[in-house]
Amino acid sequence: MEKKIAVILGDGIGPEVTQQSIKVLNCIAKQFGHRFIYNYGLMGADAIDKTGSALPEETITTCLDSDAVLFGAIGHPKYDNDPTAKVRPEQGLLQLRKTLQLFANIRPVNTYSSLEHLSPLKSQQLQGVDFIIYRELTGGIYFGKKEVNADYTEASDLCSYTKTEIERIAHLAFQSAQQRKKKLTLVDKANVLETSRLWRKVVQEISKEYTDVTVDYLFVDNAAMQIILNPGQFDVILTENMFGDIISDEASVISGSLGLLPSASIGVSSALFEPIHGSYPKAAGKDIANPVGSILSAAMMLDHFKLYEEANLVRAAVDWTLNSKFVTKDIDPVNYYFTSTIGDLICDYVTEKIPSDVN
Ligand code: IPM
Ligand code: MN
After folding, report:
1. Residue 216 annotated as catalytic
2. Does the keyword Cell membrane apply (predicted)?
3. Which letter, b or e, does each residue of 99-111 get, where b requires 16 or more Cβ atoms within 10 Å of its Cβ?
4. Interval between CA 244 and ligand 1 midpoint (Å)
5. Contact at 8 Å (CB) between 125 and 152?
6. Number of CB atoms found within 10 A of residue 246's CB
């Protein structure tokens, strides 16, 4: 199989973790006889420094001309505390999501028994945790009309949703639930927000087409609590853009490290794969960042290409490194391996250089 992959290394640790994914993808290509062609594009603070724009036109063209996009991370501290900055790195990612119509952001959350001690939750709460968040990605308050008055004493962000925007992600979430534990939880704030009431109405209607799926409704404040108290109750969580942003970071700590979580953003005809962590500027260039979130995102990309055996092999390789204590500094601050070494080890496993009795 031949696939064109647009690569956006981005900011901070983005380049070094994404390079490990490319290394692993190349090993997979070699092992299974595929050809992956990489075309690089700029985005974020890196793009602003080099071109003045957070998302240069060429990057959009490169992405539109590819079968998938592999993305690292975005953000630089110099913009975070400057509310009046005219261009911001994050605008690049938001604009790319909108342009490629990446309306569904999929974030799986599971646990690894070898990392239980790192989770802030008790081992008993971690049993059976395996859920997936479907976060709407191109609507809501992120993309509504934004206004500030002339003397900057008042500002507003509009949250709006259409029935169609809700329907398209709801169908994906229901279909996912059908393949899993057949439970869907809609997270909203329907006791307060009109948009949330629309979500409930649309989801109630759609649920009639998926009678094998049990539907639950939770207010977001309660959901935030339940994710910590009893994460094992969830299967598929469906939610709007900003609630999904917040609860997915919350959920990520369950696994033990934010650095482990992958994501896929699926659109009408494009798809983008990125770890859920940020650019972690303090670790940039030190070869200490955890590449697993990016590598598992690459595995989700292989799934998207319907290369299921290849994707499962990458996941098995990641499991093997974690169980063998080949981990980065975020997981073991004393006996840790470098980012690039983890990439090498995962490649060794993929190319069967690891004797099977080590498993
Ligand atoms: C994420 C990030 C982005 C978001 C930022 C960088 C714009 O936090 O992908 O979760 O809020 O969506
Ligand atoms: Mn986020």
Report:
1. no
2. no
3. bbbbbbbbbbbeb
4. 10
5. no
6. 15
142 is catalytic: yes
| 135 labeled binding residue | yes
Residues 61-107 have pLDDT tens digits of: 999 999 999 999 999 999 988 888 889 999 999 999 999 999 999 99
In one letter, which amino acid is 173?
Answer: A
Q: Does the active-site annotation cover 221?
A: yes
pLDDT, tens only, 24-64: 999 999 999 999 999 999 999 999 999 999 999 999 999 99
The pTM score is: 0.94
Per the annotation, the verdict on 249 as an active-site residue is yes
Report d(CA 67, CA 74) in Å as an integer. Answer: 22
Q: Which of 11, 46, 235, 245 is catalytic?
A: 245
Spatial distance between the Cα atoms of 54 and 60, rounded to a whole number of angstroms: 11
**Which ligand is in closest contact with the Cα of 107?**
1
131 strand-pairing partners: 109
Q: Alpha carbon of 267 to those of 68, 103, 112, 259, 270: distances in Å?
A: 10, 5, 30, 24, 5
For the Cβ of 260 lying below 6 angstroms from any atom of ligand 1, the answer is no
Query: What is the distance between the alpha carbons of residues 323 and 314, in angstroms, rounded to a whole number?
Result: 14
Q: How many residues does the chain have?
A: 359
- For the chain, domains (ranges, CATH) are 1-107+256-359 (3.40.718.10), 120-254 (3.40.718.10)
Nearest by Cα to 170 from 184, 183, 190, 156: 184
Contacts of 247 (CB under 8 A, 6+ apart): 133, 187, 220, 223, 224, 227, 237, 239
Pairing of the two strands 262-266 and 271-275: antiparallel
ipTM: 0.99
Instruction: Decide if 144 contacts 159 (C-beta within 8 A).
Output: yes
Distance from Cα 77 to the centre of ligand 2, integer Å: 15
